[in-house]
Write a structure and sequence with these properties.
The protein has helices at residues 17-33, 42-49, 53-70, 86-96, 101-105, 108-116, 125-141, 153-170, 225-233, 254-262, 266-277, 283-309, 312-340, and strands at 4-9, 35-40, 77-81, 145-147, 187-189. It is mainly alpha-helical. 55% of the residues lie in helices and 7% in strands. Strand 1 (4-9), helix 1 (17-33) and strand 2 (35-40) form a beta-alpha-beta unit. The chain is built from 13 helices and 5 strands. The strands form 2 sheets. The chain has a 3-stranded parallel beta sheet with strand order 1-2-3, with helices on both faces. Strands 4-5 form a two-stranded parallel sheet. Tryptophan is lined by residues 6-10, 39, 41, 44, 134, 137-138, 146, 148, 152.
Length: 345
């Protein structure tokens, strides 16, 4: 059995620190020993952004530059575009026959998105179909490992149900290489930091919100040192702490959450957070430390990224290469499916 990894990003914006800790770091390790497929889900972006296709196009290239800048290596992994893989669209239709309509409308991730983006009843059919499209993204590649953020688990659950159903109904009807299932079981891989919070204050229920473009609370991988400094110096900390001698809250405080995730100097973090909780250290010094940490992490990435963005032809050549390799696998899967459904003539 081949250990294949598949995951994807929707090009609705460039990648930020949340993507870095939640997913990209994992992928750097995975690409060393697994056959990795990283899909840029441009068709998914159309489900909410169909009026601004040029933005989607720009974000595809932005994400690709982000990938390469953090160290995803096209010699070691396959990076490709969802719309370059016709088998995904075909499989989406076949899968749609196996799924009850109301099962889609109950999908918690969809429901959250409809609420958070204020879509009401005002979304296209394609939007409802997108979890199914995501199942097709996955199943086309017959992967065993899927690195994702927590919010994606309902989609993976649905993909798994479809895989089991297909295997059960049709798995015996086709000839597969020894030991292979039509759709192998896959496991979601969550990172240690499941969900990075953003720079802003909590919502009305007192909950810190996740880092996201739409909430305008993100540090992007391409932010320069000045912008990082300004974002961090203005970030939300403990609103009840007016002066350095006030006792501070470190648990619900992005400043300390960030230090714990990103600062390699764990000794300093331990001591300084203790001092902060006891009113013995100022905000500014701790924020400046965090600026240094984040700038050290992102400066080399931003520099490489700039070189890549100057060379869109190179970026596109990576997609062309990925397209060829990804289609070989996806077309093979589609042939199995058609054979299983007795529609391969
Ligand atoms: N929906 C995912 C997101 O917005 C992106 C995605 C598309 C994906 N297809 C996928 C993730 C397949 C994992 C597997 O983050």
């Amino acid at each position: 059995v081949i250990n294949r990894v598949l995951t994807g990003d929707t090009p609705t914006g460039p990648l930020h620190l949340g993507h870095w800790v939640g997913s990209l770091k994992n992928r750097l390790v995975l690409q060393q020993s697994y056959d990795c497929y990283f899909l840029i889900a441009n068709i998914h972006a159309f489900t909410t952004k169909c009026y601004t296709p040029l933005d989607i196009r720009a974000n595809v290239l932005a994400i690709l530059a982000d990938y390469l800048a953090v160290g995803l290596d096209p010699e070691k992994c396959t990076i490709f575009l969802q719309s370059d893989i016709p088998a995904i669209a075909e499989l989406t239709i076949f899968l749609s026959m196996e799924l009850n309509f109301s099962r889609l409308t109950r999908n918690p991730t969809l429901k959250t998105e409809i609420r958070d983006k204020n879509l009401g009843n005002n979304y296209p059919l394609g939007f409802l179909l997108y979890p199914l499209g995501q199942a097709a993204d996955i199943l086309c590649f017959r992967p065993t490992v899927i690195p994702v953020g927590e919010d994606q688990l309902p989609h993976l659950e649905m993909a798994k149900e479809l895989a089991i159903k297909f295997n059960h109904k049709y798995g015996q009807k086709i000839y597969l290489p020894e030991g292979e299932a039509l759709f192998p079981l896959f496991t979601p891989l969550l990172s240690d930091t499941k969900r990075l919070i953003g720079l802003g204050p909590p919502n009305a229920e007192g909950k810190l919100l996740k880092m996201s473009k739409s909430l305008n609370n993100a540090i992007y991988l391409h932010d320069n040192a000045d912008l990082i400094r300004s974002k961090i110096m203005h970030m939300y900390t403990d609103p009840l702490r007016i002066k350095a001698s006030d006792k501070g809250n470190i648990d619900q405080n992005p400043l300390w959450i960030f230090h714990k995730v990103f600062n390699p100097d764990t000794k300093w973090v331990e001591q300084a957070s203790f001092d902060y909780a006891n009113g013995a250290i100022g905000d500014v010094i701790c924020k400046k430390r965090l600026v240094d940490v984040v700038v050290d992490l992102l400066a080399p990435i931003a520099k490489k990224r700039l070189d890549y963005t100057k060379n869109p032809d190179y970026l596109i050549s990576i997609l062309r290469k990925g397209q060829i390799k990804a289609n070989m696998i996806a077309n093979q899967t589609l042939m199995y499916i058609k054979e299983a459904l007795a529609q391969h003539f």
